Amino acid sequence: MTQPILVIKDMSIVFSSPDEADIEAVRQVDLTLTPGKTLALVGESGCGKSVTARAVLRLLDRNANIPRGSILFQPEGEAATDIARLKQDSLPLRAIRGNQISMIFQEPMSSLSPVHTIGDQIDEMMILHEGLRPKQARERTVALLDQVGIPGARQRADAYPFELSGGLRQRAMIAMALACTPQLLIADEPTTALDVTTQAQILDLLRQLQSDFGMAMLFITHDLGVVAEIADEVAVMYLGDVVEQGSVYDVFARPSHPYTQALMSSIPKMARKAERVRLSPIKGTVPAPKDRPVGCAFTSRCPYAFEPCATIRPERTEVGGGHHARCHLLTRQPVEAVA
Ligand SMILES: Nc1ncnc2c1ncn2[C@@H]1O[C@H](COP(=O)(O)OP(=O)(O)OP(=O)(O)O)[C@@H](O)[C@H]1O
Ligand SMILES: [Mg+2]
Q1: Contact between residue 181 and residue 208 where contact means Cβ atoms under 8 Å apart
Q2: Would you say the CB of residue 47 lies under 6 angstroms from ligand 1?
Q3: What is the mean pLDDT of residues 332-337?
Q4: Could you tell me if the CB of 11 is within 6 A of ligand 1?
Q5: Is the shortest distance between the CB of 19 and ligand 1 below 6 Å?
Q6: Is the confidence at residue 124, as pLDDT, over 90?
Q7: Which SMART domains match (predicted)?
Q8: 177, 212 Cβ separation under 8 angstroms
């Protein structure tokens, strides 16, 4: 079996503020990333997807803290590193960032500099991390721009980001993230801002690059259609909790947490197009993290909530091989028949 490249264990992320109580934005998350495989992190806005991803590169805001848990990079190797415990700006962290683990974002301009050509920026990554000479770097940059589907790569290398269309900018950012052949690529909603056709092309590209490079991928999206298309595994987050995780096949075939079930039933079914389709959006809104109940975070919106839900946090329960959910319904004792 392939060894994992990154194991997040029992990780919590807390934000502090001078005037308010601390906010636990992510609680006790367990995730495993494997080479050649894609794990999708899915959930509504504010549930902690980006914060979880940024923690892996320690790119959290200054008021963030990882008080418990670990983020083990290359956990089985001799150089196993707990990223959660590395010092900001330390040498090992800088060696990992952009080199062994890199990240792409919804908005390419958050990682591309507007005042340098895309070629210069990609060259720079290779010169900095891999010690290539400028000429060698440029050859690799051109090959990479070509590989991510930028036509006329040699000429386009001299373009500034603002001279490219949205789709090409996204491809340039992907090329930059891949410059040092990372072992893990984190993609935070990389296709959300694109039109449907470009979105499909970028997903195809990422799939192709993953099979060329064999990297692991953590893919963040709020779109279950994208999950089905790109991921092998899925983790569903709600208000900082991973409420369900497992292979895409298992979770889609047998969603076991009421939140996952609600997300699934809010997707319009193509097959029912001819009928009057009634979407069933999830009732209510996600509470703010500071108002999260002690027990299951989904209690206030759950149609099946019963006595322990608001007060006792459900355990992570195995539903089938490698498929888990946190829901009291899974451990509920059947009511004994009255004699
Ligand atoms: N610097 C901060 N201080 C306090 N709380 C923060 C800070 N940064 C993020 N949060 C909180 O962490 C929670 C998770 O945010 P996150 O950005 O990870 O959500 P998300 O799932 O990525 O949502 P979206 O789909 O909108 O991108 C939110 O409730 C947010 O308000
Ligand atoms: Mg986000």
Answers
A1: no
A2: yes
A3: 66
A4: no
A5: no
A6: yes
A7: AAA (SM00382)
A8: no
Strands 184-188 and 317-320 turn out to be unpaired
Mean pLDDT of 234-241: 96
Q: What is the DSSP string of 53-83?
A: HHHHTT---TTEEEEEEEEEESTTSTT-EEG
Task: List pLDDT tens digits, range 146-199.
Answer: 988 899 999 999 999 999 998 899 999 999 999 988 999 999 998 887 788 888
Residue 336 is predicted with a pLDDT of 59
SS3 155: helix
Measured distance CA(247)–CA(293) in Å, rounded? 28
Nearest to 25 by CA among 16, 36, 38: 16
CA of 52 to the centre of ligand 1 (A): 9
Q: What are the CA-CA distances from residue 119 to residues 113, 135, 212 (Å)? A: 11, 11, 22
- Cβ atoms of residues 202 and 167 within 8 Å: yes
25 C-alpha vs ligand 1 centroid, how far in Å?
7
Rounded to whole angstroms, the Cα distance separating 100 from 129 reads 10
Element (H, E) at 207: helix 196-213
Instruction: Supply φ then ψ for residue 282, to 5 degrees.
Output: -75, 125
Please state the rounded mean pLDDT for residues 225-253.
95
Instruction: Identify the H or E element spanning 186.
Output: strand 184-188
Ligand 2 centroid to Cα of residue 141, in Å, is: 29
* Ligand 1 atom closest to the CA of 47, numbered from 1: 21
Q: Which atom of ligand 1 is nearest to the CA of 52?
A: 18
CB 305 within 8 A of CB 41: no
Assign 58 a pLDDT band (cuts: 50, 70, 90): very high
Q: Is 42 in the pocket of ligand 1 (CB under 6 A)?
A: no
The one-letter amino acid at 169:
R
Which ligand is located closest to the Cα atom of residue 44?
Answer: 1
Q: Tokens in use for 212?
A: 């060329």
Residue 265 has pLDDT above 90, yes or no: no
Q: Give pLDDT tens digits for 276-301.
A: 545 556 778 888 888 888 899 999 99
Closest ligand relative to 48 C-alpha: 1
Residue with CA closest to ligand 1 atom 25? 45
Q: What's the DSSP call for residue 331?
A: G
CA proximity to 232, closest of 256, 216, 255, 208: 216
